[in-house]
UniProtKB/TrEMBL annotation:
Family (UniProt): Belongs to the LysR transcriptional regulatory family.
PANTHER family reported in the protein's UniProt record: HTH-TYPE TRANSCRIPTIONAL REGULATOR LEUO-RELATED, TRANSCRIPTIONAL REGULATORY PROTEIN
Annotated organism of origin: Hydrogenophaga atypica
Claim: Transcription is one of the keywords in the record: yes
SUPFAM superfamilies: Winged helix' DNA-binding domain
Cross-referenced Pfam families: HTH_1
Protein name: LysR family transcriptional regulator
Listed transmembrane segments: none
InterPro entries referenced in this protein's UniProt entry, alphabetically: LysR-type_TF, LysR_HTH_N, WH-like_DNA-bd_sf, WH_DNA-bd_sf
Domain HTH lysR-type positions: 1-63
Length: 86
C-alpha cells in the first residue's frame, strides 16, 4: 500500500466516523476490527494534531477541527478522482 492509498483509507474512515458518530457502527460499515479503527483514529489525530473525535457518554463527538474539514473530505471523496472504475 502506498502513502496515497493509506491517506485515502484514513479519509474514508474519518468520514464514516463523522457520519456514524460511533466506532462500533463505523467498524460494522467498513468491516474493520475495533483495533484497526482505533489505530486509524489515532493516526488521524496525529496527522491533524487534534483529537478530532472524543467520546462523550456513548457517542463520538467531532471537535471543531473535524467539523471544519468534514465537508471538504465528503466532497473530495465524492469526486470522480476517487471513484473506482469498473
Amino acid at each position: 500500500m502506498n502513502l496515497h492509498e493509506e491517506a485515502l483509507i484514513l479519509l474514508v474512515i474519518f468520514e464514516t466516523l463523522i457520519e456514524t458518530r460511533s466506532v462500533s457502527k463505523a467498524n460494522e460499515r467498513l468491516n474493520l476490527s475495533q483495533l484497526s479503527m482505533s489505530n486509524a483514529l489515532a493516526r488521524l489525530c496525529k496527522a491533524f494534531g487534534d483529537p478530532m473525535l472524543v467520546r462523550v457518554k456513548n457517542k463520538m463527538v467531532p471537535m471543531a477541527n473535524a467539523l471544519r474539514i468534514a465537508a471538504s473530505v465528503h466532497e473530495d471523496l465524492g469526486s470522480p478522482r476517487f471513484q473506482c472504475n469498473k
